[in-house]
Amino acid sequence: MNLPTGKASMETDRLAALPLFAPLTFDQIAQIAPHASELRVPEGGRLLLDGPFSGDLVVVETGRAQVRRAGERVAELGPGDVFGALAAAEFPTATVSALTDMTLVTFSGRDVRRVGARAPKTGALLRLSIEAHRPDFAGMAQRALGSMVAAAV
To answer: What is the pTM of this model?
Structure first.
């Protein structure tokens, strides 16, 4: 994990406020909280999905970002959206750029796996919630392509 971090080990209440953690109990969130870090990204800041975030779980707490691939805007991310390892699989050369100042909650992929190994039920619920909260990049890209084609006609 090579993430630049601000504050490590977040308060459980703060994580509980994020939609990603809604399926988990307060005690389950408390198991995850010591592994969370905060990262602040200024407006215009860029994050490469194939860079240091590719193996990590990143949750947008505040702010908005756009995802670009080959110069085309394919998605917009906002509070509650998840990216990192999941997004990198679909857009291995994408860049996330902050449209506003952002606060991100980050977990190393290793820590997410470690929590799952130590607390299988917590890990399973977290994986299901990650899947439910990841943006539909393929659908967004298809809609963006449709808009570009319609504009060109």
So the answer is: 0.74
Instruction: Write down the pLDDT at residue 41.
Output: 95
Cα separation of 94 and 137, whole Å? 11
Domain ranges for the chain: 12-152
Nearest to 29 by CA among 123, 92, 106: 123
151: Cβ contacts below 8 Å, ≥ 6 apart: none
The model's pLDDT over 19-75, given as tens digits with 9 standing for 90+, comes to: 999 999 999 999 999 999 999 999 999 886 555 555 788 899 999 999 887 888 888
144: helix, strand or coil: helix
What's the pLDDT at 49? 58
Residues 6+ apart with CB under 8 A from 13: none
CB atoms within 10 A of CB 130: 17
* Residue 11: CA count within 13 A, CB half-sphere: 3
| Element spanning 84, H or E | strand 82-84
CATH number, domain 12-152: 2.60.120.10
Can you say whether the dihedral through the CA atoms of 31, 109, 65, 52 is positive or negative? positive
CA distance 103 to 41: 6
